[in-house]
Amino acid sequence: MKYGYFDDPNREYVITTPETPLPWINYLGNDGFYGLISNTAGGYDFYRDAKLRRITRFRYNNVPNDFGGRMYYIKDGDTVWSPAFLPAGTALDSYECRHGMGYTTFTSVKNSVEAKLTAFVPLGDSCELNMLDLVNNSGETKELTVFSCIEWCLWNAVDDANNYQRNLSIGELEVIGSTIYHKTEYRERRNHYAFFTVNTDVAGFDTDRDTFLGARRFWNDPVVVENGKSGDSVASGWYPIASHSIKVKLAPGEKKSFIFQLGYVEVDRDKKWESKGVINKAPAKALIEKYNSEAACDKAFADLAAYWSNLLSIYHLESGNDKLNRMVNIWHQYQCMVTFNMSRSASYWETGTGRGMGFRDSCQDLLGFMHLVPDRARARIIDIASIQFENGSTYHQYQPLTKRGNADIGGGFNDDPLWLVACTCAYIRETGDFTILDHPTPFNNVEGSEKPLLEHLRRSVNFTINNKGPHGLPLIGRADWNDCLNLNCFSYEPGESFQTFGPSEGPVAESVFIAGMFVKYGLEYADLCDHIGLADEAATIRNEVNNVKTATEQFGWDGEWFVRAYDANGNKVGSDECEEGKIFIEPQGFCTMAGIGQEKGYGRKALDSVKKYLVNDYGVEILAPCYTTYHVELGEISSYPPGYKENGAIFTHNNPWVSVAATVIGDGDMAFDIYKRSCPAFLEDVSEIHRTEPYVYSQMIAGRSAPRYGEAKNSFLTGTAAWAFVDISQAILGITPTLDGLSVKPCLPADLDDYTVTRRYRGCEYHIHVLKDPAKKGLYVDGTATEGNLIPINDASEIEVEYYI
Ligand code: GLC
Ligand code: GLC
Questions:
Q1: Helix H or strand E segment including 722
Q2: Residue to probe by mutation, ligand 1, list 481, 586, 646, most atoms within 8 Å of CB
């Protein structure tokens, strides 16, 4: 069952009912000012950091969970309705929500009035625009009253939800004409404020929530709306909001449009005030002025569309498979932008008050993002490397606003450092920008500790070399990629964090997964060294890689698949010897990608075992059989009921590893099959089972052991976005940036043998046609048969490429 459909020419998903199984959301904003918006216009806005600069409020664990956000009420006689269905919740005569690239529109009709609400954040400015068009399609004149409402959050989202004894006394606002300024805490240390305005005269306003709602009422029937008249309240403390009311008279057939703007402004400290107690409104007025006409907003909207057209033309596929085309050309890349912007910080499942930016998460998000905006990728790599410690280990997370490592969680996740190597090498392969390696980059943000970025990569690689366990395999530390495999934790008390409890420097527990990573990324580092004239270092590293490879073949192979780890007692995890958790997905993918045991056929065997034990209808499960009891020596993984999360769900992030691994052993059918199983557009028809958005990946899909098999959770912010795009665009379709140029080396399923990829790469536009013709087999560059798979870097502005299979 579906709740909408894809509109590919417009790059939209069209939701045709407000009653989706869960809120289906979208993101507004590209760089700085962001909004989350659901298909009923719920969600919230923030500037840079959803914890420290929260502009509008979100009520956690709310019932329903999606009240709030952009609230609009249209009062038409005795009927009150909302263009996005909520908050009024009145049944609509028609409803449609279109989630597009950085915008969302709602079109709905009630009693012959059509409302179209368009929400987006214009490029380069810190505001969200809501354009509301009203058309009277009835034969009579309509006299409507439109109410707007947003609820201010008192900036720090955690404090906002915690510190009532203070916060209910500090709310302050100014109301000037149609603009409501939110200036709580501005009198003291804040040099930013927000405002909500509309480009017309208002009949009234409210800034005090209780005046607006009335005693013991809910957002669906505020007393002010019921009465058709604002209270003109000015909040002092309590719960500040911003609401306008507008009288709208529409003749039959007449249309009127209004522009609401929610803006965020920072002011120099010495220019904070216009006069005593009166905030400096100059920057706000400039923004208000800029977007006060329909023409200006239409232009900003068109600019946003053009921005996305340009980004999405960097990698563009034409194939006979519509689902594949829409994922590759639109939704994979869109989700990569979102994960780059948000890491795992703010979604409907990540509160925005928690983790901030993750080290390993952000490094992996970059893998799917590099080609879109390389400058931002570069800056992010430096930010991430700046939280690394001198010994090569690193903080696990940082807060986007402060960019300082998060001391609450600390470090000790021993896969982290290698992801920095992965993303930096990928950045250079994309851009050819070796200068990033010279960039002076601090350790732990300590001024004066700067070393060229190359030194950070070196310490990352050496961290693994210097931290190996009894079998010569890398020590796992607090956890590797699997945050829930906590082999040094041993927690018996509820509430203890599995990630931070216990001795992190366990000297015994080893990770075969990190071994796979080290082989893969150690070799990439060695290649990089060769390229910049460090042949000796390259040789040393290759030698170390060999040692780990040998150790893995010796101690990390279980007979039919790769072992997952050794626990703190030296026992195998993910082995046939185990009663539960006999096989894990991660090392099958990574060790095969890394080519470990290739000559011995380990990769083929490992992937056959994956098929046999882990593949289900919707993807590949993370392990089998699931843990049915708590294992103190394994940690959080065994805390989840079977089939959920890291205990046997499809943890989608690692599915592309298996798919890429299949291409490494030349199995295009398996690669594409695995790709399709968890790919959102391919699951659209079972949306009533899958339940999350059919246009983006979710972090997990419940596995066969779970009562709700097939149900997805934690949509949008997952490393799957980047890895799935790498998988399909590079490994399967075969268009891969290398240090020396673009490589064309598809690994295809039987049913995909005729497609064209347009790829802009290092200043040249490549038109790559992949066709079936065994007589011609191989690569032709501008008509000339070419040995191998590489198109060397060149000065051409366009190149025609044929690749015959
Ligand atoms: C979450 C984390 C990610 C981790 C994964 C597996 O998605 O964000 O860092 O690798 O879980 O535990
Ligand atoms: C929990 C989650 C895991 C996530 C981690 C982040 O362990 O199960 O997916 O990565 O929290 O701290």
A1: helix 720-725
A2: 481
- Which pair of structure tokens corresponds to residue 565? 């780890």
* For residue 785, pLDDT beyond 90: yes
Whole-number Å distance between alpha carbons of 213 and 562: 60
Question: Given the CA of residue 700, which atom of ligand 2 is nearest to it?
Answer: 9
Task: Kindly tell me the burial class for residue 382, based on how many C-beta atoms sit within 10 Å of its own C-beta (0-12, 13-18, 19 or more).
Answer: middle
Tell me if residue 375 is catalytic. Answer: no
Asked if residue 344 has its Cβ within 6 Å of ligand 1, the reply is yes
Q: How far apart are CA 511 and CA 516, in angstroms?
A: 9
Neighbours of 782 (CB within 10 A): 13
For a mutational test of ligand 2's pocket, the pick from 478, 646, 654, i.e. the residue with the most ligand atoms closer than 8 A to its C-beta, is 646
Instruction: Count CB atoms within 10 A of the CB of residue 172.
Output: 20
Cis peptide preceding 87, ω within 30 of 0: yes
Q: Output the six-digit token pair for 381.
A: 């790599």
Q: In degrees rounded to 5, what are phi and psi of residue 672?
A: -75, -35
**pTM of the predicted protein model:** 0.98
Residue 504 in this model has a pLDDT that exceeds 80? no
* For the CA of 646, the nearest atom of ligand 2: 8
d(CA 105, CA 117): 5
β pairing state of 127-136 and 255-266: antiparallel
Question: Of the residues 483, 567, 667, 727, which is catalytic?
Answer: 483
Read off the pLDDT of residues 566-590 as tens digits, 9 standing for 90 and up.
999 999 999 999 999 999 999 999 9
Q: Model confidence over 604-649: pLDDT tens digits?
A: 999 999 999 999 999 999 999 999 999 999 999 999 999 999 999 9
- Is ligand 1 within 6 A of the CB of residue 243? no
164 token code pair: 């009532």
